Amino acid sequence: MSLTKEQFITEFKDIALKLYAAPLDDLSTQQLYQALALLTRSYIGQPWAETKKRYDQEETKQVFYFSIEFLPGRLLQSNLLNLGILSEVEAGLNELGLRPQKIFDAEADPGLGNGGLGRLASAFMDAMASVGMAGNGNGIRYQYGLFKQAFVNGYQVELPDDWMRNGFAWETRKENRAVTVKFGGWVELRPSRSGNLRVIYHNTDDVLAVPYDVAMVGYHNQVVNNLRLWSAEAPINAGTDFTLEQKERINQITQILYPDDSDASGKQLRLRQEYFFTSAGIQSIVRHYRRTHNSMAGFADRVAIHINDTHPAMAIPELMRVLMDDEHVSWDEAWRITLKVMSYTNHTLLSEALEVWPIDMFSGMVPRIYQIIQEIDRRFRLVFVPQFGQAMIDRIAPLGNGQVRMAYLASIGSHAINGVAPIHSELLKKDVLHDLYQIFPERFNNKTNGITPRRWIQIGDRPLSHLLDKKIGTTWRKNPLALRQLHDFADDTRFLDDLNAAKAENKRALAKYIDQVVHVKVDPDAIFDVQIKRLHAYKRQLLHVLGILDAYLAIKRGEKRPKRLHIFGAKAAPSYVYAKEIIKVMNAVADLVNGDPDVSKYLQVVFLPNYGVTMAEKIIPAADISEQISTAGKEASGTSNMKLMSAGALTLATLDGANIEIKDAVGDDNVEIFGLTEEEIAGYYQRGDYHARDFYDQDPRLHAALDMLVNGQIPGIETEGRDIFNSLLTYNDEYFVLADFESYLAANERLDKLYQQPRIWAKKALANIAESGRFSADFTVQRYGREIWHVVAKTPEDDHEA
Ligand code: NBY
């Protein structure tokens, strides 16, 4: 859209006056934010309605991305950017004597997810709208997001994230689109005169699912898609029948996000959440379709439903249920439609993270869904036992060991199953879903994750963005592959110096932010070494910490090194004791290092509390080194690796997840690879001959670093230091930290040396930025569109051009 600075100023003053009955200079920052958000929303309404109308009129095939998590990040700036009016608005605010950034910072970050899985879902929403794909999100409107993390005496403390305290400016309550979700009770199957089976539900607990829609604005293309988040309420007209307690119980369903990104803990409320948003989504899709079609025959040509990990896998039996019970479609026809509609992404290779539910809990909560899964299970066995044998089918049938096994259900009921990086997709076929791969080889494929450069470069990294505009023009903003033009300037020393200057500016800004948040004065000239991701044993923040301890000891011995600032951001699942112990140790190490004037000349450590999307936007542009150091074969893909490379950070990495593709993209000279490969680790497992203690005994530097955990040199970690020490030595170091220690140090030493030559460093940074375009989620969703969903992207401009 077009909007001049002058128009904006008039409209902004006007809306603020209407809203608050006061002139601008009387308003708080929060009020200014609310007014600006409302004005921005008013620009979105029309293209939003028109997009909807166009999809209906043209009978566009639509994608519905079902995810129990979304992490959109703040939306004001990104909506303004995508509408094409960010510069005008900022100029207008400046002219009014207001600070744009201060207003943007008044927005709460909707933390409706744990980590990469939730962020990926939101990147895809942004990307689908931006490439003109009819892509809708389906999720939960959690009253409370992921806990707010604080540190008290170095320990993680979890506080409620009341992110909607000031409302959520971007949502629209769609009361008229509410549906009823039924739990519990029992099911009567009664033959009817027509020969159909009539399904009668008795004694169910009904919950009203009310949708709140959030606009997903495409980049400069007049497309606005829909993210539908469901909220649980007591059914209407029954107000008098519900006690306060019953209402409370219903409201609880969408009250809080589960803060577990590790093992699938069997929580009843979690299962309730899964069925709630899945059933609501399926019902509303079918209802919308049936408004314009009188049978379900063509449904699969108009609808693709994607299951983001197994949390929404009940979409499969739920669609079967609606097709059969409500639409009177036969089993065979319903199954044909369901298979064609559904597709599934797996996000983990850790077997403890594969979701399973006890059958008695499951069948009690969703009896009809359980019946349908029983029938899926029966038919699956009937068809495949003769061909593949009882033992194999027992391993992978949807029901087994008294459990409903969601990954198997998802795989059996989808026409496509994908991993999120090549190594991950290969390991799915080889290990985790090997038996299913034998049966359905054609379903398996890879779709490497992606990120949105709009948020991470255009919004997050202004200095770099301006530099790019000056050097290669602005086409990279629409097509990030244009970043490849940067290769032409790999030997342009002026430009390399400019790149370093942009990085330095970002580092000064981050240093200021660090001082504000944790009151540590850091040296902006240090190497900024960043590890930002959930705290997990397999991600090996511990290896990074041991590297810091080694540096500490070396500096204490009098060694001089280029100054490094280690920056961590990481939340631990509240029930993950070991991860929380690592957090305590990280904080204690930070105190030790920063508090020692001999050491802090060369080494500083900052652990920023409450890492999330908004904080990532501040950290990533300032990073020199990106630590991607998971045990090879454990990280499905990673996405912070892609974001950091696009900011020109050099990747310090194991050959895991998408690190491998980053290495292939930039070449061996432009990343720093270390550590055991996945094959080498598999070899240790097979032979059973990994002995962590040997590394401790044989490597004096490792020995000394590990001893610091237990010898009292780090105050306050008696218990935690001992537990971690034991996990590595007594319990033989499940994640091969000790085996990779030496090569990790060597890689770090190479980076230290390299940093002494700023232009060579900048040249490598340039190569990373130049090749980061391929990881744009725009391309990722287009690959999903072509190969899985069978949809084509199209924008209103395409119509004009045609
Ligand atoms: O998904 C992450 C992977 O670890 C990462 O490698 C990948 O890049 C990213 C996107 O594909 N997985 C992830 O974020 N998983 C969770 O957050 C999660 C949440 C809940 C549960 C399990 C995992 N759960 O069991 O409830």
UniProtKB/TrEMBL annotation:
MF terms from GO for this chain are:
glycogen phosphorylase activity; pyridoxal phosphate binding
Name of a matching Pfam family: Phosphorylase
UniProt subcellular location: Cytoplasm
Which reactions does this protein catalyse? [(1->4)-alpha-D-glucosyl](n) + phosphate = [(1->4)-alpha-D-glucosyl](n-1) + alpha-D-glucose 1-phosphate
Q: What is its main location?
A: cytoplasm
What GO biological process, any one, is recorded here?
glycogen catabolic process
Provide the cofactor list for this protein: pyridoxal 5'-phosphate
| Record's function text | Phosphorylase is an important allosteric enzyme in carbohydrate metabolism. Enzymes from different sources differ in their regulatory mechanisms and in their natural substrates. However, all known phosphorylases share catalytic and structural properties. Allosteric enzyme that catalyzes the rate-limiting step in glycogen catabolism, the phosphorolytic cleavage of glycogen to produce glucose-1-phosphate, and plays a central role in maintaining cellular and organismal glucose homeostasis.
**What is the name of the protein in this document?**
Alpha-1,4 glucan phosphorylase
